[in-house]
Prior knowledge:
- Helices cover about 5% and strands about 60% of the residues.
- It is mostly beta strands and about 90 residues long.
- The chain has a single domain (about 5-85), classed as CATH 2.40.50.140.
- A five-stranded mixed barrel has the order 1-2-3-5-4.
Amino acid sequence: MISNVMVIGLMDDVISSNTRYIKVQRGYRNVEGVFVEDKIPIRYWTRATNNYFMTMAKGTLVGIRGRLETEAEVGVLIMCDFLETLHLPLKT
């Protein structure tokens, strides 16, 4: 089975050495009028020890294209095939 997923969201917490969460907002508001945010695990596999994906600042807006996979540690995750930085977080 082949899957293709496109996600745009904000980089979030690190789970392991090559996996971290991306935070995405749902396209609708809940009953309180607030957009609900979901955290989706993303894995970026590379042989490099200093991979750019893991050193990105929290809050960086990224576009990710990948495929769905399952793993015992985190359940369903997106295996990243393509990563594009769309906007860096503002420094305050």
